[in-house]
Write a structure and sequence with these properties.
This protein has 435 residues and is an alpha/beta fold. The protein has helices at residues 2-20, 103-109, 112-128, 145-154, 184-189, 199-211, 239-251, 263-272, 285-293, 302-313, 319-328, 332-341, 362-369, 374-380, 383-388, and strands spanning 31-39, 49-57, 60-66, 75-86, 88-93, 131-136, 162-165, 171-172, 195-196, 216-220, 255-260, 276-279, 297-299, 345-346, 406-409, 425-428, 431-434. A 7-stranded mixed sheet has the order 3-2-1-4-15-16-17, with no helix packed on it. Bound molecules: zinc ion.
């Protein structure tokens, strides 16, 4: 009897213990049923299907089902009147800044915190324009605002696109990404740690960027339009410096993208083994051969060329800038056409920060002017863009397992690519940022 009571008590105690213990629950899944009137899930095949549902579970595409399906376990998003495609990728932006007459004073008046606030705002503008991934190719010197923004977005503290960041651009002293045109003592205050001279010093500069946690390395192989110096657009970094940077970066798992306008600098950078050329204004048949031999990418940034020409004509650039803008700008569409016809791999990039943030999609119409079909222009900003950033198993198409990054427009971007300038819906990682 006594034993029975003890056993009963034990059972009651066990029950009490069990019921007060936290109940094991299967975590709730975040499910979204995106019902698309028209769907271009994989721009590489160009197939547009009608009345499809993209099922996004916990931020990733889980499946695509024919017809409009939904369930009580998730949210139904009605895009029956829209054209849905993967989130766009801009492989060349500068998120911390935007070209304006006062830029010249920013480096001596703005703190890194000011730049971070600018960048956070521009990141959101970019995301709402449909760009769910960007590569930031150069964000001032020494400051870590761009890295903080990248990490803040990844950890969900602030909204913005997925960012790959180059940190500070590596430049020869007096080269395109250095500071120019101030009196001596100001120049000393502003001296850039990412400026380097000679192969050893350029190895040091490359390693310093990598130790800061950058994703890629950006170099200036040639002069550039917007540096305030009449130093032209030809090669500035030596062959030996570029080879040292490429070797150092590749040994440490970082790819190298070279700003290059002049033909000598484009070809020297390709021979040094860079992974891609930005701008490429003066490229020729030899360059096209080198691009293909080295499996290097071209990011034409036609919008930057178009924009600086217009700014120069309107008298809003400094004299040294305007002169170079009038030389490089008119060449870029034709260079891109020849590279495209020559089979060079081309990724979409705008150099936004030169033009206004949020206007990135204006590049599509310029690519079409350079001979791309609208589908090819979309591929440059999706499947090709993803391949260019080494993210082609994560983004760029809406296959199962890929990120739930998708956008919608009302019209058909395959007949009028400028529809992409008016994105009506943005989802990144399963979260909706615009509807
Ligand atoms: Zn740039």
């Amino acid at each position: 009897m006594k034993r029975t009571i003890i056993a009963a008590c034990a059972a009651v105690l066990a029950f009490a213990a069990a019921s007060s213990a936290p109940v094991a629950q299967t975590p709730a899944h975040d499910i979204k049923y995106v019902q698309a009137g028209r769907l271009l899930a994989d721009p590489s095949n160009g197939r547009v299907l009608t009345e499809q549902t993209v099922v996004v579970v916990d931020g990733k595409v889980s499946e695509i089902r024919p017809g409009y399906v939904g369930g009580a376990d998730g949210e139904v998003i009605d895009l029956h009147d829209s054209f849905v495609l993967p989130g766009l990728i801009d492989s060349h932006v500068h998120l911390l800044d935007e070209l304006r007459p006062e830029n010249r004073f920013d480096d001596v008046t703005m703190s890194e915190a000011d730049f971070a606030i600018n960048g956070a705002r521009f990141a959101l503008v970019t995301l709402k324009a449909g760009f769910t991934t960007v590569q930031d190719l150069g964000a001032g010197d020494g400051g870590d605002a761009i890295l903080a923004i990248r990490d803040g977005i990844n950890t969900g503290k602030i909204p913005g696109p997925r960012i790959l960041a180059a940190g500070s651009t590596i430049t020869p002293t007096g080269g395109h990404a250095d500071v120019h045109g101030y009196r001596d003592d100001i120049l000393h205050v502003m001296a850039r740690t990412s400026a380097c001279n000679g192969p050893d010093d350029c190895r040091r500069a490359t390693r310093e960027q990598i130790s800061r946690g950058v994703d890629v390395i950006k170099i200036t192989a040639t002069g550039g339009v917007l540096s305030n110096t009449a130093a032209g657009l030809a090669q500035q970094m030596t062959d030996e410096e570029m080879a040292a940077i490429v070797e150092t970066a590749h040994r440490m798992g970082r790819r190298v993208f070279a700003h290059a306008h002049g033909l000598d600098g484009i070809n020297a950078a390709l021979r040094a083994g860079v992974d891609g050329i930005e701008h490429g204004s003066f490229l020729d048949a030899t360059s096209i051969k080198l691009f293909r031999e080295h499996h290097a990418w071209l990011v034409p940034t036609l919008l930057a060329g178009d924009f600086v020409m217009r700014e120069g004509q309107a008298g809003r650039l400094l004299p040294a800038q305007a002169q170079k803008a009038m030389i490089a700008g008119p060449l870029m569409i034709d260079a891109t056409r020849r590279a495209h016809e020559g089979g060079v791999m081309i990724a979409f990039g705008t150099d936004t920060g030169v033009s206004a943030h949020g206007d990135n999609a204006q590049e599509f119409a310029l690519l079409v002017r350079a001979g791309f079909t609208p589908l090819q222009a979309i591929q440059a900003a999706t499947t090709m863009g993803a391949q260019h950033l080494n993210l082609d198993t994560v983004i760029g198409r809406l296959n199962p397992g890929f990120a739930g990054d998708l956008i919608a427009v009302k019209g058909d971007p395959l007949t009028d690519v400028r529809q992409l300038e008016h994105v009506s819906f943005v989802m990144k990682g399963g979260a909706v940022y615009k509807r």
